[in-house]
Amino acid sequence: MRIASIVTAAFPAPPPPSVVYAPIWMAMMINKGLAQRGHEVTFFTPNGSRLEGTTIVTAELEPFHKNYPQEPEIYQAEDIRHTEREKIINLWDQRLFAELYKMDRDKPFDVIHAHALDRGLPLGFVAKTPTIYTLHTPVYSWHEKAFGLFKDSPQYLVSISDAQRKPAQNLHWIETVYNGIDIEKFPFSQTPEDFFLFIGRINKDKGTAEAIEAARLCKQSLRIVGGQGKDDYWNTRIEPFLDGNQIRSEGLVPYSETVRFYQKARAVLIPIRWEEPFGLTMIEAMACGTPVIAFRRGSVPEVVKDGVTGFIVDTVEEMADAMKKIDQIDRRACRKHVEEYFTVEKMVDGYEQLFLDIINKKA
């Protein structure tokens, strides 16, 4: 197959060490895996990008954040607040999409795989080559309305969990393909130390305060790995409870160093307060043999096997109770679960078969 792949012009691939941007890493793993299977992959990504086995097309674009390094404002729930910076990022991305579809016009690809829905829809509408969008963000009602404007075209959606589809089930979904990880980068550990772990962004949605509350309820040690903030949430819900002993902040650590925290933790706490489409933290932890205790939100019931690879709970009190019985979980079962369902190979299998099905349907 001749496959075109595109994510964003905001960052190169791979992104800088200080940037956590999962869609780029997912695209890189998918592209590399497909190339290793003999497919011809063209990766559209800005200057400074590299990926073995693929053809890189940059359109001579410098990454947006090289010129505008400050992080843009993030969308909140249904509120679509387009800042001026966001409008400029859109243009950067659309220029990269335009390069892709210009090349497709001159010599059509078999399939186009995109990771940014709103940037590509207008161009995909006038193309004959099927475009498949993997959505990495929550789905809102506006997605249904926007996609409806371009429904009479060969454009399809892939969800990263079944739960992700629920707010807009009438979209043109064709498959769910779970994210995968390179488990060789997450070695198994049978002998944890005596602490629980919260890892990720420190904010209300991620439930950092709830993790602290659960640890205090059951009198267990908690280490927090994530950037220390200066906002009201940090000042009122987090910092007052950091004692350097039972509740300790490790600050923001490089992604490559998170493995040692996973390996040493008795369990990872994920008290999310939003419908997260897919939490990579869950499968990274379980790959190391570390159980997950998570709130019953978003993709959690699809990823965590309750009572086998951790516990699914509904309240802080239930989380505290689960922490007391975490030694009932066999860490080897956690590793096996990831090996069976959430590896890079499983993810590439899913996309390869999907692309072939779409091409055969077109033929």
From TrEMBL:
Listed PANTHER family: BLL5217 PROTEIN, GLYCOSYLTRANSFERASE
Gene3D superfamilies xrefs: Glycogen Phosphorylase B
InterPro entries noted in UniProt: Glyco_trans_1 (IPR001296), Glyco_trans_4-like_N (IPR028098)
Sequence ranges assigned to domain Glycosyltransferase subfamily 4-like N-terminal in this UniProt record: 32-184
Domain Glycosyl transferase family: 189-326
Name assigned to this protein: Glycosyl transferase family 1 domain-containing protein
GO molecular function, one term: glycosyltransferase activity
Pfam families assigned to the protein according to its UniProt record, in alphabetical order: Glyco_transf_4, Glycos_transf_1
Signal peptide bounds: none
